[in-house]
Design brief:
- By secondary structure, the chain is an alpha+beta fold.
- It is built from 10 helices and 20 strands.
- 34% of the residues lie in helices and 23% in strands.
- The longest helix has 22 residues, at 145-166.
- The structure holds zinc ion (2 copies).
Length: 370
């Protein structure tokens, strides 16, 4: 982990006029401090001051050992125990870091619970809270070499797991059984778990991008969408392929070919400075020209790293230029009610030369013999 992450956070806070940023356990805390720690019923809050002083960890005493074992930077602890509660520890930390009671403090709108917000407001009445999500996302968007290496390993694992899972497809196997096969194959290939519960959508179920796996047995003639990812350490992969069980019909072939060309157009558009919107347009134009524009019902992709969905988003309105090192998915799809769907998803990174796909699993339609 690079030691300058907190320095970059401090610089960003000063640019934005924030006195501090208050962070709860999760991906941002892991990124900044190395601490692998999750939200529990007890309050944990970490305050990073804009003056460059030590981050203040307000944590339950019983979590201290766990935090200390993974922390990568010097910090100051404000432990509290169940008998006393967190109010006094939080008041000391806030009072020390943010003596100006009208100061602006950044918080994570997408992650912080109401209980941490209320505790913060009680510890420092008058404090103004603002959303620090974009600031934190900006720090995390450009991946360092060790982050890219972890993502490449997460990709290697999911590709091995896909190979093994696709080999198990035959008529009568259910979506749920296949999803279990994929989850086990991820662990067997060296993964620390799934990035998210994988999706197996066979036949008509493929019309729903967020299909919940069912006990429907796969049938000859199905297109089968398989969407899964592996976690390696803290980093994630996320890949989708669509395979055919037996010879697909002409429309299934046509929509797979369109989605494949849309995926290729999205990848071909990659270059430093391009916007998420422009990549979305490049992929979408292919599907629209093929007559299926109204069936491509979601954005083209999302950022990927410590979180399954993080900035940048590859969608209309996402106009910021993408920097070298930004990692995200390209996942166009076509979904037709009553028939099924196709999605082809790759994980890519912007490079100085343009861009490169971290995933390289076969994208042409795999037709499984029956
Ligand atoms: Zn996915
Ligand atoms: Zn995805």
């Amino acid at each position: 982990m690079s030691a300058n992450r907190v320095t970059r956070l401090t610089e960003a806070m000063n640019r934005e006029g924030l006195a501090a940023v208050a962070i709860v356990p999760g991906a941002n805390l892991r990124y900044l401090t190395g601490v692998d720690f999750h939200v529990t019923s007890r309050l944990s809050l970490v305050l990073f001051p804009a003056d460059g002083g030590l981050p203040c960890f307000v944590v339950p005493t019983l979590e201290m050992a766990r935090v200390q074992s993974s922390i990568a930077i010097p910090v100051q602890f404000y432990p509290w125990n169940d008998a006393t509660g967190p109010a006094e520890a939080l008041r000391s930390a806030v009072g020390k870091l943010v003596p100006d009671t009208a100061a602006r403090v950044g918080i994570e709108y997408m992650v912080m619970r109401v209980r941490e917000l209320r505790a913060l407001e009680e510890a420092a009445p008058g404090l103004q809270t603002v959303d620090a999500t974009p600031l934190l996302a900006g720090l995390r968007m450009v991946k360092e070499q060790d982050e890219l290496a972890a993502m490449a390993e997460a990709v290697r694992i999911i590709e091995v797991a896909f190979q093994q899972t696709i080999a198990q497809i035959r008529p009568g196997v259910t979506e749920r059984e296949l999803a279990t096969t994929l989850a086990n194959a991820i662990i067997a290939a060296g993964g620390d778990g799934e990035s998210f519960p994988s999706i197996v959508a066979g036949g008509p179920n493929g019309a729903y991008p967020h299909h919940e796996n069912s006990d429907r047995p796969l049938e000859v003639g199905d297109l089968i969408i398989i969407d899964g990812g592996a976690r390696y350490g803290a980093y994630l992969s996320d890949m989708t392929r669509t395979v055919a069980l037996g010879e697909p019909g002409p429309e299934a072939r046509r929509i797979h070919d369109l989605v494949l060309r849309a995926n290729a157009a999205g990848r071909a558009a990659l270059r430093p400075g391009i916007s998420g919107e422009a990549i979305d347009q490049a992929a979408r134009a292919v599907i629209t020209a093929g007559g299926y524009g109204e069936y491509f019902i979601h954005r083209t992709g999302h950022g990927l790293g410590l979180d399954e969905h993080e900035p940048p988003y590859i969608v209309a309105g996402s106009t910021d230029p993408l920097p070298v090192g930004a990692t995200f998915t390209i996942e166009p799809g076509i979904y037709i009610e009553g028939i099924g769907g196709v999605r082809i998803e790759d994980d890519v990174v912007i490079t100085a030369e343009g861009g490169r796909s971290l995933t390289s699993f076969e994208r042409e339609l795999i037709v499984l013999p029956v």
